[in-house]
Amino acid sequence: MAVVDARAVIAEGGEPFDMIMAAVAGLESGEELVVLAPFEPVPLEGVLASEGFEYEAIAIDGGDWRTIFRRRDEG
Description:
The protein is α+β, with helices and mostly antiparallel strands. It has helices at residues 7-11, 17-25, 42-50; strands at 2-5, 33-37, 53-59, 65-71. It is 31% helix and 31% strand.
């Protein structure tokens, strides 16, 4: 499982998209990506869905979100 905690980058006014996409590119077959963010990353969900991922977004403590991305089965 790869984890990207984007909360600090976002809190500093940064954009974590490139960091997240680099993590996506490094995923092994069947490996999940977990993104932690201070909001549900709806635009990212759309981008990765178009790249063949399904996702589950879960609200966690403090108003943050954990979104788990998995490649959809091709079978």
